[in-house]
Amino acid sequence: MEHTLQCNVLKCRKELGDRALVTTCYIFQQHMSKTLTEKYSSLNVHLDKVVNEANAEIANCHNKLKDAEIDRDELRKKYEELLRTCKEKNKKLLQTQELYDKLKRKAMLGQVQDAAEDAVESTLQAQPVNSNGVESQEPPYFQSRDALYGQSTSSLHDMQRSLGPYGNSQANIPTHIGSWPRTFGAQSEQDERE
C-alpha cells in the first residue's frame, strides 16, 4: 500500500511530491509567520497608541484635579475671609443696634420727661375754678421762685444781702409800725384785772 504525502497544515493538506514536501511547508509557514508578525506589529502600534492616549487623558485628569484643588483652596480662603468679615460686621451691627436702642430709650425718656414737665407745669399754672365757675385769682400752690417773686435768683441773693437783722428789708418796713402789735389773749385779761 502506498501512502500519499500530504501537507501537515490542516488547511492545506495537498498531496505533495517527494521533492516538494519541505519547500511547500516551509514557504507556507514563512507566509503565516510574516502575516502574524504584521498583525502583531499593527496590534502593538495600536496598543501603544491606546496606552499613550490613556496616559495623556490620565495626565489631563491629574492636571484638572490639581487645578480644582487650587481653586478649592482659594475658595476656602475667600470663604474664611468672608466669614470673618461677616462676623466682624455682625458684631459692629449688634453694637450699633445697642447704641441705637440706648439713644432711642434716652430720647423717649427725654420726651416723656418733657411731656410730664409740661403737663405738671400746665397743671400748676392753671387757675383753679370756684363753685360759681369763675376762675379765682389766687396764685397756684406751687410756682417757681422766679415766677412767684417776679425776679431772678441772683436778684434774690442781692436782696438777702441787704436784709436787716430780722430777715426783712429795712426799706420795706412801713413807718407807722414801730412795735409789735398787742395780742388780745391773756394780756387783755390782765389789763381788765388791773
From TrEMBL:
| GO cellular component entries | synaptonemal complex
Where does the signal peptide begin and end? none
In this entry, which stretches build a coiled coil? 51-106
Locate the region Disordered. Answer: 158-194
- Organism for this UniProt entry: Rosellinia necatrix (White root-rot fungus)
Its recorded name reads Putative E3 ubiquitin-protein ligase CCNB1IP1
The terms under GO molecular function for this entry are:
ubiquitin protein ligase activity
Which GO biological process categories is it annotated with? reciprocal meiotic recombination
Which keywords are on file for this protein? Coiled coil
Q: Which domain of life is it from?
A: Eukaryota
What the entry lists under InterPro entries is as follows: CCNB1IP1 (IPR042448)
